[in-house]
Write a structure and sequence with these properties.
peroxisome, 3-OHacyl-CoA_DH_NAD-bd, binds (2E)-Hexenoyl-CoA, N-(1-d-carboxylethyl)-l-norvaline Dehydrogenase, domain 2, multifunctional enzyme, lyase, 2-enoyl-CoA Hydratase, Chain A, domain 1, about 10% strand
């Protein structure tokens, strides 16, 4: 298929890029672009070229799916050489996004015109790489390194107006973009030989160098462990110290090294897995979501309040419902305070806070949910409470309203059975803090209508969440796997490790917090109550709770929190208590390395993930990874638990689980049949997708 078509507007040729969905620079587009430029330059009737694009993007960048594979000729830098060195001016007409390689195309042009809604950026850093087609050389030449470097370090795109202020585009135009680009092309042609971005030297001053070096120093202090951030500094420095050709070659060499690194592979996996998770079996475009104009949230606690904020942030009016005036006022005030922090930080204006607060109506009693198109229940985590609420909702909610529970563990089928309309009931599991965390687990009990699931997905996106549809089982995907990690952490204590050692292994891996610091923060009593309700025990965790050591809120938990201390301190009494448990259980305590601790914490999670796949609770291993990346702060550059397991080798995970099962006598640690099969076949979880 031809991905570039050429038309004429007087003496200017317009090459329109058309490579759906987002004009990514795959092999065909690179080839067609090179051909178009060569043809137009050879045409004596043409005095200039405009590069325009069809569809919603100018160019979304290199085709990420080609990374790590041998690239077909011509590679992007070769195409950009053709553009930059063309004898006639080339002007980019930018609508939608110009990202990564897409912006690099525009940078190699001799002029740039953009629509007001256009966004321009070099987001490579988020994929573990750096720009590889001249971005680090041409952007500093065009706007100065002190402005170019932060754009590349954050990866955040800038809007057209900002791009104009920076000098990144020449004009921002309303209306006919191509006509404006043609006009600029004619003006440039009238001036004679076009000026190459690579020839611009006046922005790279001594003052610019000093400002860049100061920013680089700061970035090194903050991101010294990120190889791509360090490579970015090196590449940008080359813009000052090397002629363009050498700077480009240096950048390309750094890019080539990063693109094959495991970290970049993991980040690319996450990019595609997130998009794949949006494709839900049984829910295609023919299933239309129900319209949502008004919402209600039942329960004004931390979760309910956070969910109400999500609606208000998206401009959807929401009724916040409690059982008493006092409770709802308390919840309402907490929301006002939370917005207040943003106002204080300067990330929100007072006027915006008032607008959002005006969208939240406090109310007492379930009857207030009558007008809502969707009701999300975020009340106490107990089946009896949930069933009572859903029974009452059934009587007041309008026909066709979606009835969702924010339960983190409970059976949605049982909750739905409390109503006469189970097809309208599903789980919408937000993660704390609900107004911040990206993940939305959408729990699909058997019998729920397809358009109800589609409504939850569409709403999730409107709320700025990453929706992942999962099956109905205890704890769904995230908490079901988390429980395995929690059990593993307790086993490690009994076997000889100490809380700070376990936590350090996990933070060393890249998590923000280890399991014990996390439990102390959330409140150890939560897990205790849950265990008691299910008749389960955990010797160390129970003993700690029996003493009232619930964590930060009581000043002690697994750690001590003396007045004013934010980080926990080792507690000799807790360590003695742990040793007592080991002695009672007849365990000879031994020490563990960080690697052993990690394997013991993470392998059982992967095993549970394999069971989740076997049971069809998650559609793909990538969905599980997205749950962990967006809901549990799994380090982004490790790609999620299933991706991590593949990188380690499933055969290694199987062997380690067998050893753990034999040592502990815990049959739940026996490798899942799916894990064994894939390991024996030498395959990874991702092979299941293709099968
Ligand atoms: C680079 O350029 C480096 C250059 C070095 C020189 C060699 N490649 O997100 P959506 C697909 S690094 C391949 O759902 P949106 C995506 O998978 C790259 N495919 O749509 C999906 O496919 P599906 C720098 C891509 O409107 C479809 O397009 N660029 C690429 O919400 C729609 O995507 C970036 O990092 C790609 N580059 O958002 C930009 N981009 O339908 C990455 C998208 O089969 N992309 N697809 O599932 C984005 O940020 C967003 O996709 C978007 C569109 C803002 C372009």
């Amino acid at each position: 298929m031809q991905t570039v078509r050429i038309a004429r507007q007087g003496s200017v040729a317009v090459a329109t890029i058309d490579n759906p969905p987002v004009n990514a620079l795959g092999a065909a587009l690179r080839r067609d672009l090179a051909t178009a430029v060569t043809e137009v330059m050879a045409d004596p009737e043409v005095e200039a070229l405009v590069l325009a694009a069809a569809g919603r993007a100018f160019i979304a960048g290199a085709d990420i799916s080609e990374f790590g594979k041998p690239l077909a000729q011509p590679i992007l830098p070769e195409v950009l050489d053709l553009i930059e060195n063309a004898a006639k001016p080339v002007v980019a007409a930018i609508q939608g996004v110009a990202l990564g390689g897409g912006l690099e195309v525009a940078l190699a042009c001799h002029g740039r015109v953009a629509l007001p809604a256009a966004k321009l950026g070099l987001p490579e850093i988020k994929l573990g790489i750096i720009p590889g087609a001249g971005g680090t050389q041409r952007l500093p030449r065009l706007i100065g390194a002190a402005k170019a470097f932060p754009m590349m370090l954050s990866g955040e795109p800038v809007a057209a107006q900002k791009a104009l202020d920076l000098g990144l585009v020449d004009r921002v135009v309303e209306g006919d973009l191509v006509a404006a680009a043609v006009a600029l092309a004619q003006e440039l042609a009238a001036k004679g030989r076009p000026r190459k971005t690579g020839e611009i030297a006046e922005k790279l001053t001594q003052a610019d160098r000093e400002a860049f070096e100061a920013l680089a120093k700061d970035a090194t202090a903050k991101s010294g462990d990120m190889p791509n951030a360090m490579a970015l500094i090196e590449a940008v420095r080359g813009a000052f110290t090397l002629p363009l050709a050498e700077g480009l070659a240096h950048e390309r060499a750094l890019f080539a090294r990063l693109v094959v690194d495991e970290r970049s592979k993991a980040l690319r996996h996450a990019f595609f897995a997130e998009r794949e998770a949006a494709k839900v079996p049984g829910i295609d475009d023919s299933v239309k979501p129900r319209p949502i104009a008004r919402a209600a949230v039942i329960g004004a606690g931390t979760m309910g309040g956070g969910i109400a904020m999500c609606f208000a942030n998206a401009g959807i009016p929401v009724t916040l419902i409690e059982t008493s005036q006092e409770q709802v006022e308390k919840g309402h005030a907490r929301i006002r305070d939370t917005y207040g922090f943003s106002v204080k930080r300067g990330s929100m204006t007072e006027a915006t806070r008032e607008q959002r607060m005006a969208l939240i109506t406090p109310a007492v009693g379930i009857a207030a949910a009558a007008e809502a198109d969707i009701v999300i229940e975020a009340a106490f985590e107990e089946m009896g409470v949930k069933r009572e609420i859903f029974g009452a909702l059934d009587k007041v909610a309008k026909p066709g309203a979606v009835l969702a529970s924010n339960t983190s563990y409970l059976d949605l089928t049982e909750i739905a059975a409390a109503t006469t309309r189970p097809a309208d009931v599903l789980g919408m599991h937000f993660f704390s803090p609900a107004n911040v965390m990206k993940l939305l687990e959408i729990v699909r009990p058997e019998g729920v209508a397809a358009d109800v699931v589609a409504t939850a997905i569409a709403l999730g996106r409107r709320l700025g969440k990453v929706p992942v549809v999962v099956g109905n089982c205890f704890g769904f995907v995230g908490n079901r796997m988390l429980e395995q990690r929690t059990r593993a952490a307790e086993r490690l204590l009994v076997a000889g490790a100490l809380p700070h050692e376990v936590d350090a292994a996990l933070t060393g891996f890249g998590f923000k917090m280890g399991p014990f610091a996390m439990s102390d923060l959330a409140g150890n009593d939560i897990g205790w109550r849950s265990r008691k309700s299910r008749g389960k025990t955990a010797a160390v965790a129970d003993a700690i709770c029996e003493r009232g050591w619930f964590g930060q809120k009581t000043g002690r938990g697994y750690y001590l929190y003396p007045e004013g201390a934010r980080a926990g301190q080792r507690d000799p009494e807790v360590e003695a208590l742990i040793a007592d448990v080991s002695a009672k259980e007849g365990v000879a305590r031994r020490s563990f390395t960080s690697e052993e601790i990690l394997a013991r914490l993470l392998d059982p999670m992967v095993n549970e993930g394999a069971r989740i796949l076997e049971e069809g609770i998650a559609a793909r291993s990538g969905d599980i990874d997205i749950v962990w990346l967006t809901g549990y702060n799994w380090p982004a550059w490790r790609g999620g638990p299933m991706h991590w397991a593949e990188a380690v080798g499933l055969d290694v995970i199987v062997r380690r689980l067998e050893e753990q099962a034999a040592e502990s006598g815990d049959a739940s640690l026996e490798p899942a049949p799916l894990l064994r099969r894939l390991a024996a076949e030498g395959k990874g979880f991702s092979a299941l997708k293709a099968a």
